[in-house]
């Protein structure tokens, strides 16, 4: 395989634990000079944060250019929609940083958009404010639809659970920028300068990584180190091209 686009959560690490085989997977891509990107629905951290996180887990040799986050994709999308905008944000510093980078201001006063990502500090007050602003006309944007994230010892609620609460209260569905939206895949392929026929999408979720890669025309590899289990695969009307226990089993020169 000539190019690789890979998810991170549940593929490279779970929470603060490196998944077995992850370092070897990165080392093989670097040694073979295979162009690759980590494409993550994580909107909490910047590429620099993610680089530092992987280094702390023992994975070296990466640069900030090896990452595209849902926060980056959301900022790019909104910038294409409106050159200058006010945004009310539920989410972490990574998302706020990317919105600032494209010239947006963060405001609770008549914002153009309510942008929602996973937030460890999500509160009823934020829920109430988001609902009121959307009811008043702000457009409802989600960085990603993931309902849960894999962490040490199990799973935890993710952006999708917050989006569901706001959607239930407003009766409006968010426009979601992250995977499986083809926009994320297109941005990644464009950044790599890659053709989908020559690219492998690696992920742990059938409903985001695998369907997104498939719809973009890429080969897909499901790893069982995150959310999707073997028993769950048959519940979907599509299948991955390959299934591995973890990324350490992926021999890219044989695919």
Report a brief summary of the structure.
This protein has 255 residues and is of the alpha/beta class. It contains nine helices and 15 strands.
Throw out a few tags for this protein.
255 residues; alpha/beta; 6-stranded parallel beta sheet; 5-stranded parallel beta sheet; 9 helices; 21% strand
Please provide a written account of the structure.
- The protein is an alpha/beta fold.
- The mean pLDDT is 95.
- It is 36% helix and 21% strand.
- It comes from Chitinilyticum piscinae.
- This is HAD-IIA family hydrolase.
- Mg(2+) binds at residues 7, 9, 204.
Rg calc? 18 Å
Structural class: alpha/beta
Q: Are there runs of 5+ residues with pLDDT below 50, and where?
A: none
| Helix content class | 25-40%
Distance between the termini: 6 Å
Element-level helix/strand string: EEEHEHEHEHEEHEEEHEHEHEHE
What does the oligomeric state look like here?
Answer: single chain
Estimate the strand proportion: 15-25%
The biggest sheet, with number of strands, parallel, antiparallel or mixed sense and barrel status, is: 6 strands, parallel
Strand order of the biggest β-sheet: 5-4-1-13-14-15
User: What is the general shape?
Assistant: globular
Mean pLDDT: 95
Instruction: Tell how many strands the DSSP assignment holds.
Output: 15
Number of helices: 9
């Amino acid at each position: 395989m000539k190019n690789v686009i890979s998810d991170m959560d549940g593929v490279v690490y779970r929470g603060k634990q490196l998944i077995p085989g992850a370092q070897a997977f990165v080392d093989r891509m670097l040694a073979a000079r295979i162009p690759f990107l980590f494409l993550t629905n994580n909107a909490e951290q910047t590429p620099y944060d993610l680089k530092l996180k992987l280094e702390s887990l023992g994975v070296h040799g990466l640069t900030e250019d090896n990452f595209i986050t849902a926060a980056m994709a959301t900022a790019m999308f909104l910038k294409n929609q409106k050159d200058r905008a006010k945004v009310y944000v539920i989410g972490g510093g990574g998302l706020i940083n990317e919105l600032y980078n494209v010239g947006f201001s963060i405001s609770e006063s008549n914002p153009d958009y309510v942008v929602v990502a996973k937030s460890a500090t999500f509160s009823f007050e934020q829920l109430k404010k988001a609902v009121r602003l959307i009811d008043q006309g702000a457009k409802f944007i989600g960085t990603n639809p993931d309902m849960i994230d894999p962490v040490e010892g199990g799973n935890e609620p993710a952006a999708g659970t917050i989006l569901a609460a706001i959607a239930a209260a407003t009766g409006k569905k968010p426009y979601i920028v992250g995977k499986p939206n083809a926009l994320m895949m297109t941005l990644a392929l464009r950044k790599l300068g890659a053709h989908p026929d020559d690219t492998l999408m690696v992920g742990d979720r059938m409903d985001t990584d695998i369907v997104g890669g498939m719809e973009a025309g890429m080969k897909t590899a499901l790893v069982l180190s995150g959310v999707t289990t073997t028993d769950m695969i048959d519940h979907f009307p599509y299948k991955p091209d390959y299934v591995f226990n973890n990324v350490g089993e992926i021999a890219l020169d044989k695919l």
